[in-house]
Amino acid sequence: MKLAHVSHEGRRRWGLVDTESGTVTPVVGTIEDWGPALTLDGTEPTLDGAAIPLAEVTFLLPIVPTSTIVGVGMNYWSHLRKLGVTERPPSTIGYLKPRTAMVAHEEQITYSALTEQLDFEVELVAIIGAPEVPFGHPTDAVLGYTVGNDVSARDAAAPPFGGLDLFTIKALDRSTPLGPWITTKDELGGGPQPDLEISLRVNGEGRQLDRTSNMLFTIDECIQYVLERMSLTTGDVVFTGTTDGVGMEDGRFLQPGDLVEAEVSGIGVLRNTVGSHQPRRQ
Fold it and tell me: Greatest CA span in the chain, whole angstroms?
């Protein structure tokens, strides 16, 4: 099933999405209420009202205000190879994103004054459904997956004193799209490592294309990396890395007005436009 967080007539609701009929049917509660049971034993949320046409709703982020957002990187060999990496990394790397960095489906990506190199990164994103994540088989706690576009400020990679300024690269306000909904893992094969096509288009031109089966580190390994450092619970989010084709490889970064479409097969298309380049604060 597909579960979306939407606003309709001034009311925020979660609901079951039917892409064939183009509707969403409200359910009782939030992911924190029905997520654990749906994840652990398949108990479906209780319906709460009539179906609403998707054209009449505004999509919200498929998370809750308390969600922790974690990203991991260095997970597709084709991407690393084009960046000059010659050996398989011994581990992934991670970072945190603030809630303020996130934008929903069809919302505008903010082009911060702090960067001239705004880059795109399509990613499969795991949504935790269980209140506790088991060490060793963490995907047992995954409710499902959504689409992420881990937009990055590439020119923050080498600050004056050396090293990576991941705070600037990954945490800029309203820069990271997520959505449009959560597709439960049973709909994607039910296993710990779904084999899905990921792709990204800018103004209709294909820029990224790969399959999640080509990850260097499995989703279990990505989440395990996080668990070794911090706990995760219902509603938390783990980005699982991007593939080649990003703007950093050929210098074709995002520009104001660009239409960016990130897609994962079996889930859907996450669509956003890039806003105007913000002026520096005086």
Answer: 57
Radius of gyration of the chain (CA): 18
pLDDT in tens, the chain (282 residues): 999 999 999 999 999 999 999 999 999 999 999 999 999 999 999 999 999 999 999 999 999 999 999 999 899 999 998 888 889 899 999 999 999 999 999 999 999 999 999 999 999 999 999 999 998 899 999 999 999 999 999 998 766 666 778 899 999 999 999 999 999 999 999 899 999 999 999 999 999 999 999 999 999 999 999 999 999 999 999 999 999 999 999 999 999 999 999 999 999 999 999 999 999 876
Supply the DSSP string of 75-122, one letter for each residue.
-BHHHHHHTT--S--SS-EEEEE-GGGEE-TTPEEEE-TT-S-EE--E
Residue 205: which CATH number? 3.90.850.10
Domain range enclosing 118: 61-277
The helix/strand/coil state of 161 is coil
**Total domains present in the chain:** 1
Is residue 7 situated within a structural domain? no
b/e burial code for range 170-187 (CB count within 10 A of at least 16 → b)? bbbebbbbbbbbbbbbee
Give me the count of residues in the chain.
Answer: 282
